[in-house]
Amino acid sequence: MSGAAAKKASSGPSGVVEWISSACRFATDRNDFRRNLLVNLGLFAAGVWVARNLSDFDLMSPQPIA
């Protein structure tokens, strides 16, 4: 088996740790514009999702007159 096939065949915590470390390297590379753009758009989309789905009040609804 080649190195890539052997690496793919192995499963378990080492694969998860490797995936997390590669994701961290992907997110923290300062020299790649496209990568930074992708990460920033993903963070923006996550923030929009949180703001739309986890807010307790509707800003467009009529407010009670007090």
TrEMBL record:
The chain crosses the membrane at residues 37-54. One of its GO terms (cellular component) is mitochondrial outer membrane translocase complex. The keyword Membrane applies. The keyword Protein transport does not apply. Keywords: Membrane, Transmembrane, Transmembrane helix. Pfam families: TOM6p. InterPro entries: TOMM6 (IPR029182). This is Translocase of outer mitochondrial membrane 6 homolog (yeast).
